[in-house]
Amino acid sequence: MKILLAPDKFRGSLDAPQVCEAMAEGIRMVSAGIETVSLPMADGGEGTLDLLLWYAGGQKKTAQVQDPLGRIINAEYGISADGKTAFIEMATASGLSLLKTEERNPLQTSTYGTGELIKLVMEAGVKEVILGIGGSATTDAGIGMAKALGWRFLDTAGQEVEAIGGNLSAIRQIIPSPLAAQLPKFQTACDVTAPLYGPSGAAHVYGPQKGADAEAVKILDKGLQDFAAITGLPEETFKSPGFGAAGGLGFGTVFFLNATLKEGVKLLMDFCDFDKHLSGVDLIITGEGKIDSQTLQGKLIKGITSKAGAIPVAALCGTLDTTPQQMKEMGISYAASVLNRPQTLNEALQSGYAGVKDATFYLVNMLYNLYQKR
């Protein structure tokens, strides 16, 4: 019997590799002869870049860069064991969590620090950069990032424009960086489908949560439109899904870095060769902290079930709040909570490993006995 383990983290309790360890231990309690393959997963958001680094056998490094308001901070990035791939989470340099509530103003913030990280890994000689763009504090279309890489932005008087969101409309000329001809391969992990501008674009949908009031949203949206106009690209281009991600940084990575936008889940599955590991698998076990109606809209379980084909998929979770019909729509054959008794949230978080281990044992023990009788 061969079982593929592909869970997400149980937030606040276990990271995805730890969930795999607990599941594997539960399976060994059934039989040491059961083959297991552990492929810890993420939903494309928080933790995705860390898992990519884990698969690459790499290590985290720290560099001093500018935060969204230009202050010097320490930001993390990762380099694969072979030194060929860099992993950058823009939120570590340009994220909303770096600012106090009263400091949040996308008219004044910049992705410059993200560009500094990119320049650093380029100077280190990497061949590929995988960039995560969730959790941004910015709506600058990536001009801050580009400026750190040597791009120049001039106004009507030919003067340099400060690369912040509020200045997008002031730009009249874009001068490419000398580095533009020697870029490594870029992949951008992007799970937002918003276009660059308009009612469903970067400013209107995400600006308010970054501190933009109604007037600022109008300024930012017009800035994104004005900047798009001077790129010389066809208007239809800016309707592309994901171009509005991270305040237009999705577009910026494509325009300035020739990046490919890719759903985080698909990027992770491709990186770990998920499809190749399906050969000979009898069961896939996935899981996450909570499975409910929102899981239907999520990308992880959908991604797993779409690749599973005829292989049954079981899901373990902390909270199970779904109907049989919703389970069928998800493509899940079996789902169960790992909680085996009434307990407080803190108790549940503390007992996560044991709960996952035992729940896996109960499931696999039954299936293994049936498997042996075939």
SSE layout and pairings?
Layout: E1 2-5, H1 16-30, E2 35-38, H2 48-55, E3 59-66, E4 72-79, E5 85-89, H3 91-94, H4 112-123, E6 128-132, H5 143-148, E7 152-154, E8 173-175, E9 185-189, H6 202-206, H7 214-231, H8 245-257, E10 260-262, H9 264-271, E11 283-292, H10 300-308, E12 313-321, H11 324-330, E13 334-337, H12 345-350, H13 352-372
Parallel strand pairs: 1-2, 1-11, 5-6, 6-9, 9-10, 11-12, 12-13
Antiparallel strand pairs: 3-4, 4-5, 7-8
Helix pairs in contact: 1-13, 2-9
Between the first and last Cα atoms, what is the distance in angstroms? 11 Å
* Overall CATH class of the largest domain: Alpha Beta
Task: Give a short account of the largest sheet.
Answer: 6 strands, mixed
**What is the count of helical runs?**
13
CATH architectural label of the largest domain: Alpha-Beta Complex
For the biggest β-sheet, the strand order reads 3-4-5-6-9-10
The helix content is 25-40%
Count of distinct structural domains: 2
- The overall strand count is 13
Question: What structural category arises from helix and sheet content?
Answer: alpha/beta
The CATH topology of the largest domain corresponds to Glycerate kinase, domain 2
Rg on CA atoms, Å: 23 Å
Strand content: 15-25%
Order of helices and strands: EHEHEEEHHEHEEEHHHEHEHEHEHH
- Coarse shape: elongated
What is the average per-residue confidence, as pLDDT, rounded to a whole number?
93
The low-confidence runs, each spanning 5 or more residues with pLDDT under 50, are none
CATH superfamily of the largest domain: Glycerate kinase, domain 2
